[in-house]
Automatic annotation (TrEMBL), chain A:
Domain Histidine kinase/HSP90-like ATPase per the UniProt entry, residue ranges: 326-418
E.C. number(s) listed in UniProt: 2.7.13.3
Cross-referenced SUPFAM superfamilies: ATPase domain of HSP90 chaperone/DNA topoisomerase II/histidine kinase (SSF55874)
Organism: Streptomyces celluloflavus
Reaction catalysed by this enzyme: ATP + protein L-histidine = ADP + protein N-phospho-L-histidine
Gene Ontology molecular function: kinase activity
Domain of life of the organism encoding this protein: Bacteria
Enzyme class: transferase
Protein name: histidine kinase
Upper taxonomic lineage: Bacteria, Bacillati, Actinomycetota, Actinomycetes, Kitasatosporales
One Pfam family matching this protein: HATPase_c
Keywords of the record: ATP-binding, Kinase, Membrane, Nucleotide-binding, Phosphoprotein, Transferase, Transmembrane, Transmembrane helix, Two-component regulatory system
TM spans (from-to): 24-50, 122-139, 145-167
Domain Signal transduction histidine kinase subgroup 3 dimerisation and phosphoacceptor, residue spans: 223-290
From TrEMBL, chain B:
Taxonomic superkingdom: Bacteria
Alphabetized Pfam families for the sequence: GerE (PF00196), Response_reg (PF00072)
One GO molecular-function entry: DNA binding
Stated name of the protein: Response regulator transcription factor
Domain HTH luxR-type residues, every copy: 144-214
CDD domains hit by this protein: LuxR_C_like, REC_NarL-like
Keyword Phosphoprotein: yes
Length: 437, 218
C-alpha cells in the first residue's frame, strides 16, 4: 500500500519535474536567443569600429554559438545535430557560415513565436497566484487584470493556477517543436553538404572494408593451409600406416603370429594417435564445447583448463551472439589467457562479458607483470603477434581492442564488437551453478 | 545386464551394440536422438545407459542434458557418457550430484574393448569411470596454489587411477605394488588434501574429484 502510494507520488513528482525542465527550456531559449543575437551584432560592430575588419573573430563566434544550439535536441531525447562543416574547407569560405548567420538572425523571431505562449502564460499565471497578496499589500485590487475579470482577488488564485498549468502542458510540445523541428532545419548540413559528407563516409568505409577483407581472406587462407598440412602430415599419414600394418598382418598371420600381434598393437596405437590429432585439429578450428554449449560455457571450460585461476562472469549476457563472433571471441580469450600465464606469469584472471546498445563487450583482466604490447621491434622484442592476431580477427567484425598493460601489471584487455544477440540462450542448462574455477 | 544405448552415428551404434552384446549385455534400446533417449530412459528397465554427448536434433549436448535430467528423476541412475572430446566442465556437471554411477569417456576408449566393457560394468555397479584425459587435466598441477603440489609423484599416480575409478586392488595391479602399499598412499593423499578416509572406493573418488573441482567439500 505504502509502496504504491509512494510510487504514485514519485511518478507525479517526476512528471512535474520534467514539465518544469521543459518550461525552463522555453524560458532560457526564449530569452537567450535574442540576447545572443544582439551580442553578436554588438561584437561585430565593435570589431568593425576597432579595426575595420570583422573577419577574424566573428566566424568563430558564430560557430561556437550555433554548436551550442546543435546540442539542444539532445536534452529532449533527440541526438546532437551533426555539424555541417567539411573538414578541409577553409574557415571563412565554408558555405555553412551563411546558413549559421541566417539561423542566428531568424532564431530570436522563431523562439519568440514558438515559445511565447508557455512563457507568457507561466508568468501571468504566477502573477495571478501572487496577485491577491499584492492586492492585499497595497490595500486595493482596482485596475488589476485579475481583479477586473473575476471581480475578486481570491478568484485570481484558481485562474493563475490554471494558466500556470496550461503553460506547463504547452511547454513540452513547444520545446520539442523548437528543438526537433526548427533547429535542424538550418543547423543540419545543407542537402549538398550532407551528400558530400555521406560520399566521404562511404569512401572511408569502402577503404576500411577492403582492408579488413584482405586480412580476413589472408588469415582464412593461412588457416586452411595449416589444416591441410596438419591433416596431410597427421591423420592421413597415420591411416596409411594403419593400412600398411594391416596388410603386413595379413601376410604374417600364418607365419609369425608374434610379429603379427606386434603389428596389430602398432596399428591400434596409430589409430589412437590419429584420433588425438584430429581432436586437437577440431579444437583449433571450432572447439566442440562452443558448438554444444555456446560462448559462455566454452569460456568456462577454457577457464578450467587454463594454467591459472580464471573466473568467467557473463551476467551481462542474456542470449547468444552469432556463431562467427562466438568463435572469434573464444579464440581471442584463449590467446589472452595463454599470454597471461606464459608471458605475464599471472596467477589470476577474470573474463567479463556484457552486451549493451548493440555492442558486445568482453574484458580480460590478469594480475601478471604487464607490459603487453602489439608492436614488434628491436627494443620491444618479437612479441605482440598474438595481440595483433586478435585485432585482425576482430576487425573482420568491425570490432575493436583496447589494451592497458603498464609495466608491472595488471593487464586489462577490452574487446568490443558491434552485434545483435540472437534469441538462443547463453547456456543450454539453466540449473548449473557458477562454473568458476 | 540391460543397456540403453544412444549414439547417432549408425556405424558406431551398431559397433557398440555388437560389442556389448558380445560381452553378455542386453541392449534394450539403441536410439539415435535426444527425444528417443529421453523416452527410453523414462520407460525402459535398465542397469546402465551409454550415451553420446552430442545428439540430434540440435547436435548440441542433447545426450548429456537428457542423461542429467534422467538422473535428477532417478538419482544414481548409472550413465556412461561418451564424447569426441572431454571437458573438465562436463566432468564436474556429471559428478555434481555426488550420487556415483557415472562415467565420462572419450569415444576412442571403445577401441580398447576389454577396458571399455569393464568401465561399463563398473558404472552399472555404481562406480565411476573417468577418462584418463580428464584426470590428466584435473591433475595437471599447473596452478600455483595447487594443493596437489604437496603430493609425491607416486601419490599422484595413485590419485589419478583412483579418479579413473579403479579400486585399490586394481591400482595395486596397475602399479605393480601391494594393496596395502596403495592403502598407505591413499591415506597419505587424503590427509594431505584434508579429506577424511572412508571405506567406499566410489565415495573416495567422488570426494577427490569434488575436492579438485572445488565444488563440494566432503
Amino acid at each position: 500500500m505504502t509502496t504504491t502510494a509512494g510510487g504514485v507520488v514519485g511518478t507525479a513528482l517526476r512528471s512535474l519535474g520534467q514539465r518544469h525542465r521543459e518550461l525552463g527550456y522555453c524560458w532560457v531559449v526564449g530569452w537567450c536567443s535574442p540576447a545572443a543575437f544582439a551580442m553578436l551584432l554588438v561584437g561585430l560592430l565593435a570589431q568593425l569600429v576597432a579595426n575595420g575588419n570583422a573577419e577574424h573573430g566573428w566566424v568563430r563566434a558564430v560557430r561556437k554559438l550555433t554548436d551550442t544550439y546543435r546540442k539542444l535536441p539532445e536534452r529532449w531525447g533527440g541526438s546532437v545535430i551533426p555539424s555541417p562543416r567539411l573538414r578541409d574547407r577553409p574557415l571563412r569560405e565554408d558555405p555553412a557560415n551563411r546558413r549559421d548567420l541566417f539561423f542566428l538572425a531568424l532564431e530570436p523571431l522563431v523562439a519568440l513565436v514558438v515559445l511565447f505562449a508557455p512563457n507568457m502564460m507561466a508568468w501571468y499565471g504566477l502573477f495571478g497566484l501572487f496577485a491577491p497578496g499584492i492586492a492585499a499589500f497595497f490595500g486595493s485590487h482596482h485596475g488589476m487584470f485579475y481583479g477586473a475579470v473575476f471581480n475578486s482577488p481570491v478568484a485570481a488564485l484558481p485562474g493563475g493556477l490554471a494558466l500556470y498549468y496550461a503553460a506547463l502542458r504547452l511547454a513540452g510540445p513547444a520545446s520539442r517543436l523548437h528543438a526537433h523541428r526548427w533547429l535542424p532545419r538550418l543547423l543540419a548540413p545543407a542537402p549538398s553538404v550532407a551528400a558530400e559528407m555521406e560520399r566521404r563516409r562511404l569512401a572511408e568505409r569502402v577503404e576500411e572494408l577492403t582492408e579488413t577483407r584482405t586480412t580476413t581472406v589472408d588469415s582464412r587462407e593461412a588457416e586452411l593451409r595449416r589444416i591441410e598440412r596438419d591433416l596431410h602430415d597427421g591423420a592421413q599419414a597415420r591411416l596409411v600406416a594403419i593400412g600398411l600394418a594391416l596388410g603386413t598382418v595379413d601376410a604374417l598371420l600364418e607365419t609369425d603370429v608374434e610379429r603379427a600381434r606386434e603389428m596389430v598393437r602398432q596399428a591400434r596405437d596409430s589409430s589412437a594417435r590419429a584420433l588425438t590429432e584430429l581432436r586437437d585439429l577440431v579444437r583449433g578450428i571450432r572447439p566442440p564445447v562452443l558448438a554444444e554449449r555456446g560462448l559462455v560455457d566454452a569460456l568456462r571450460a577454457l577457464a578450467l583448463d587454463a594454467p591459472l585461476q580464471a573466473e568467467v562472469d557473463a551476467e551481462g549476457l542474456t542470449s547468444r551472439p552469432d556463431g562467427p563472433i562466438e568463435t572469434a571471441l573464444y579464440f581471442a580469450v584463449a590467446e589472452l589467457l595463454t599470454n597471461a600465464a606464459r608471458h605475464g606469469d599471472a596467477a589470476h584472471a577474470r573474463v567479463e562479458l556484457s552486451h549493451a546498445d548493440g555492442v558486445l563487450r568482453c574484458t580480460v583482466w590478469d594480475d601478471g607483470r604487464g607490459g603487453a604490447h602489439e608492436e614488434a621491434g628491436p627494443e620491444l622484442g618479437p612479441g605482440g603477434s598474438g595481440l595483433r592476431g586478435i585485432r585482425r580477427r576482430l576487425s573482420a567484425f568491425d570490432g575493436n581492442v583496447d589494451i592497458e598493460s603498464p609495466a608491472g601489471g595488471p593487464t586489462l584487455v577490452m574487446m568490443e564488437l558491434p552485434c545483435v544477440l540472437s534469441s538462443r540462450k547463453t547456456s543450454s542448462s539453466s540449473e548449473r551453478g557458477s562454473a568458476t574455477s | 545386464m540391460r543397456v540403453v544405448l544412444a549414439e547417432d552415428l549408425f556405424l558406431l551404434r551398431e559397433g557398440l551394440c555388437n560389442l556389448l552384446t558380445a560381452h553378455g549385455f542386453t541392449v534394450v534400446a539403441a536410439v539415435a536422438s535426444g527425444p528417443e533417449l529421453r523416452r527410453a530412459l523414462a520407460e525402459e528397465e535398465l542397469d546402465v545407459a551409454v550415451v553420446d554427448v552430442r545428439l540430434p536434433p540440435t547436435f548440441t549436448d542433447e545426450g548429456m542434458q537428457a542423461a542429467l535430467e534422467a538422473r535428477r528423476e532417478r538419482p544414481g541412475l548409472p550413465v556412461l557418457v561418451l564424447s569426441q572430446h572431454v571437458e573438465q566442465l562436463y566432468a564436474r556437471e556429471l559428478l555434481g550430484d555426488g550420487a556415483g554411477g557415472i562415467g565420462y569417456l572419450l569415444k576412442d576408449r571403445v577401441l580398447g574393448a576389454e577396458e571399455f566393457v569393464e568401465s561399463v560394468r563398473r558404472v552399472a555397479g555404481g562406480g565411476t569411470a573417468m577418462d584418463p584425459e580428464v584426470v590428466t587435466k584435473l591433475l595437471g598441477g599447473r596452478r600455483r596454489d595447487d594443493p596437489l603440489a604437496m603430493l609425491t609423484p607416486r601419490e599422484r599416480e595413485v590419485l589419478a587411477l583412483m579418479a579413473e575409478g579403479c579400486s585399490n586392488a586394481a591400482i595395486a595391479a596397475r602399479l605393480f605394488v601391494s594393496e596395502s602399499a596403495v592403502g598407505k598412499h591413499s591415506a597419505s593423499i587424503f590427509s594431505k588434501l584434508g579429506i577424511s578416509v572412508s571405506d567406499d572406493t566410489n565415495r573416495r573418488v567422488l570426494a577427490v574429484l569434488a575436492y579438485l573441482n572445488g565444488s563440494v567439500h566432503p
